[in-house]
Design brief:
Helices cover 37% and strands 19% of the residues. The chain is built from 17 helices and 21 strands.
């Protein structure tokens, strides 16, 4: 793929590759020089009112004004929480992330709410508390999370005073405090000029300097070796770009910084697939595609609209993935570390639809809008402002969403099949080293009348174990707790070499050879998993050939609700008012129904206290065979 962003500067053809080392250094300087002439300096790109423009803020905030003030009033006596050294150490000692993250997040949200309250009222009533929050933040050793400190030289969770880490949260807080500096530095100076001076210094040393001078952060991709890039890239780059736009007024320095962000985000866009699917799942769409939107909007702002790639089909595809992945009634297709529940951020979806001129996204955003809905994105203050700016347009948009009969992402290998009788089946190929990966190549999920029947449990609360070498010891990550077979009693294996092959999709059908997702001990030559839908039913078929049959094959399906397996050959499944039946050949399979208790609130709030694994154990061991299952609406 070409360099989508940088190609606008150098006007090169689509054969340009991403290996920056192949570009002549003179060309790079020419790119920066050309960019330098485009840049809008001294925050002249900002369209929001100045702090002192009371009429401007009244107009901009509209009916939201009083609610922002009320939220700020609740914080006038807020006690700023200390994030203790032992809170950071808890991540190493117990694996618990929340001990450190909860008080830190509470402080950051308080700063955002106090800033919005002061901008809304403009009487100085919230300034002292805002100063307390700003100074409290400046006194912290780091703005990064304990869970992300592994990138510092010690690889420990207690932050080093001399190694600023730019992660998702430090970037967000940097953006929030940059906007705070932009709007409030004059008011702060009337109290004491040291406040703004200190804040500006911390933003320089924690965000601007390390972004320019530290190439080691993996998400930057500056020393790119083909490794995975994910939502961290546009998320961190959009924050860095925003900080430079608000703080840096030297044209040469700003041009170099903006160019660095362009190089980095280009690498992310080249890593992900042109079909636009988010391999991290809908829960991460707002961070991956959504932060790409934020970044590209900021880039267009600082260049006066000259660097703008919203007409690229890939960008539109990235946006529309979120509407295509919505099943209905709050349920989404939740591959990877995604929750099955997800209504989506209506404001973000509308902004994306507006940027790429997608009526599909605009109508979907209107459907997702809950009224009254106060734009409040916590420490992500840029999104709060951007949401307010399009609220009136969103309110005037008619809600609309239709599930398409056939949606196919040929590079990511996601497939959605639907029927007019209320059946929705999602299947995937892919490989077992995707971002936020579960070992799930070839799996499916099935909904009937917008109600999940065959499910993907999702992911539990993040701990130290979640993103470590122990990840696949967690049951939610394992293929035996997805809708997949255990071949010769062996589950799929994690790693980029374990993947689906021969993946095919067409209207009403999907198939993949998943033998290649299993390790050698599975002794499998070929295992074709296929799905076919028609009317009110879906057929799941496994056609296989083994090198040797050494243990019984077991085909697992995950479900929930009320389960009745008393009658041989069928499993009745009732979820609320929806009744379904899973049909199987009782002569060939022995069925075990295993309840799985859900003690993790991140799972139980979606599925309740328990889900079930239906394990169909083959009674005969054969080298070749064919298994069929049918699930249908009653």
């Amino acid at each position: 793929m070409k360099k989508l962003i940088l190609s606008l500067l150098v006007f090169l053809c689509a054969t340009v590759t991403f290996a920056y080392t192949e570009r002549d250094l003179l060309q790079k300087q020419a790119d920066i020089n050309q960019l330098k002439e485009m840049l809008i300096l001294n925050q002249q790109w900002v369209t929001y009112p100045d702090y002192s423009d009371r009429a401007g803020w009244d107009t901009f905030l509209g009916t939201f004004k009083d609610e922002y003030i009320r939220r700020g009033e609740k914080l006038l006596n807020y006690q700023w929480q200390v994030v203790k050294a032992t809170d950071y150490l808890a991540f190493e000692r117990t694996g618990n992330r929340q001990v450190m993250e909860q008080p830190f997040d509470a402080n950051n949200r308080a700063i955002a709410d106090l800033l919005m309250a002061e901008l809304a009222e403009g009487k100085g009533r919230f300034i002292d508390q805002l100063i307390n929050g700003v100074f409290h933040s400046c006194e912290m050793t780091s703005w990064a999370l304990a869970a992300h400190m592994i990138v510092q030289p010690s690889h420990r969770s207690l932050p080093a005073y001399d190694y600023p880490v730019i992660d998702l949260v430090s970037g967000d807080l940097g953006g929030l405090l940059s906007w705070t500096h932009y709007f409030m530095h004059g008011a702060f100076d009337k109290v004491n000029p040291e406040i703004s001076r200190r804040l500006r210094h911390e933003l320089q040393t924690r965000i601007l300097d390390p972004y320019m001078n530290n190439d080691s952060f993996w998400w930057m991709g500056r020393n790119y070796n083909g490794r995975m890039l994910n939502n961290w890239n546009p998320w961190c780059n959009s924050n860095a770009l925003m900080c430079f736009m608000l703080l840096e007024n030297d044209r040469d320095t700003l041009a170099k910084a903006v160019h660095l962000t362009m190089e980095s985000v280009d690498k992310f866009l080249n890593y992900i697939k042109a079909d636009g699917a988010c391999e991290e799942g809908p829960s991460y769409w707002g961070h991956a595609a959504g932060k790409t939107l934020d970044y590209l909007e900021l880039l267009a702002d600082i260049t006066g609209g000259k660097v703008n790639i919203f007409n690229e089909p890939m960008i539109r595809n990235m946006g529309e993935y979120i509407s295509r992945s919505y099943v209905g009634n709050g349920w989404v297709v939740n591959f990877a570390d995604a929750s099955a529940r997800g209504d989506g951020d209506a404001y973000l979806i509308y902004r994306f639809g507006k940027a790429v001129n997608s009526d599909e996204l605009k109508g979907f955003a209107a459907l997702m809008r809950k009224s009254p809905l106060l734009p409040a994105n916590g420490r992500d203050i840029f999104r709060t402002f951007a949401s307010i700016a399009i609220d009136k347009e969103l309110q005037q948009t008619p809600p609309k969403h239709d599930s398409r009969p056939f949606t196919w992402y040929p590079e990511t290998e996601f497939c959605y099949l639907t029927t007019s009788q209320g059946l929705f089946l999602a299947a995937k190929g892919g490989y077992n080293d995707e971002s936020h990966n579960h070992n799930d190549a070839g799996t499916c999920s099935v909904w009937i009348n917008q109600t999940p029947i065959l499910i993907d449990a999702g992911v539990g609360t993040y701990t130290r174990q979640t993103f470590s070498s122990e990840r696949y010891s967690i049951w939610t990550m394992q293929s035996e707790y997805h809708n997949l077979p255990m071949i010769n009693g062996v589950a799929e294996k994690n790693g980029k070499n374990y993947k689906a092959t021969e993946v095919k999709a067409a209207k009403n059908t999907f198939s993949a050879n998943i033998a290649t997702a299993y390790p050698a001990e599975a002794k499998v030559k070929k295992w074709t998993r296929s799905y076919t839908i028609k009317g009110k039913q879906a057929k799941i078929n496994d056609s296989f050939e083994l090198e040797e049959a050494v243990a019984p094959n077991i085909v697992n399906f995950m479900t929930w609700g009320e389960i009745d397996a008393s009658e041989k050959g069928k499993v009745n499944i009732r979820v609320h008012d929806v009744k379904a039946v899973l049909l199987y050949d009782a002569a060939n399979f022995e069925l075990t129904v295993e309840p799985k208790e859900l003690t993790d609130p991140r799972l139980s709030k979606v599925w309740g206290e328990k889900i079930y694994r239906l394990s169909f154990k083959a009674k005969q061991q054969t080298n070749k065979g064919n298994y069929s299952f049918i699930i249908k609406n009653l």
